[in-house]
Amino acid sequence: MVTILPFVGLALIYSLIIFFLCEEKSLKHKKLTELREVEYDPQKVFVALEKYQTLRYAGYYFAAVLVYTLVMAYVAFVKHHLGLLEVISYIFLTAFIGSLFIFLFKWRKNLLIKVFSSFMYGSLFIAASGIGMAIVYLTD
Q1: Helix/strand/coil (H/E/C) assignment for every residue in 43-96
Q2: Which of 48, 51, 64, 137 has its CA 20 to 30 A from that of 86?
Q3: What is the pLDDT of residue 130?
Q4: How confident is the model at residue 40, as a pLDDT?
Q5: Distance CA 121, CA 131 (A)
Q6: Structural domain boundaries, residue 56
Q7: Rounded Cα gap, residues 26 and 6, in angstroms
Q8: At what angle do helices 111-139 and 84-105 cross, to 10 degrees?
Q9: Structure pTM?
């Protein structure tokens, strides 16, 4: 019986490193104080997404997690004949723990920044991992 906890730990470390690298590059161009100005105006939020190149770096993060999941799914999950319950547990445990870590890491930041960062990490991780697992299991 193979446990998924080592796979969750590896994915958590990898995805958090990639996420923080992409976030750092995204916020490198402008100061965080400018982001606090766009809290309540939806039009300014979309301007900030363009200015910080958030969508571009979110795409990089998505691609990195997708490639990692393709490798992890084949090496760890298919070879050990792990089923749907283990796959879902892996995806949601990693996404939940990572989102919680990001939320706590940004404790002193604005609530909007904490929620947005946690959501970006979790939603993109779930989507990329789900697609990666589906590709590997459907082609195997």
Answers
A1: HHHHHHHHHCCHHHHHHHHHHHHHHHHHHHHHHHHHCCCCCHHHHHHHHHHHHH
A2: 64
A3: 95
A4: 56
A5: 16
A6: 5-139
A7: 30
A8: 160
A9: 0.80
Question: Is the confidence at residue 13, as pLDDT, over 90?
Answer: yes
pLDDT tens-digit readout, 58-94? 899 999 999 999 999 998 888 888 888 999 999 999 9
98, two tokens: 């990572």
Instruction: State the Cα–Cα distance between residues 102 and 80, nearest whole angstrom.
Output: 31
Tokens matching residue 131: 């697609």
Can you read off the two tokens belonging to residue 117?
Answer: 């960062």
* 108-136 pLDDT tens trace: 877 777 788 888 899 999 999 999 999 99
State the burial class of residue 89 (Cβ atoms within 10 Å of its Cβ: 0-12, 13-18, 19+). middle
Q: At 25, list the tokens.
A: 């590059």
Closest of 122, 94, 95 to residue 4, by C-alpha: 94
**What is the C-alpha to C-alpha distance for residues 31 and 18, in angstroms, rounded to an integer?**
21
* Cα–Cα separations (whole angstroms), residue 54 to 6, 49, 76, 113: 30, 5, 31, 13
Spatial distance between the Cα atoms of 135 and 137, rounded to a whole number of angstroms:
6
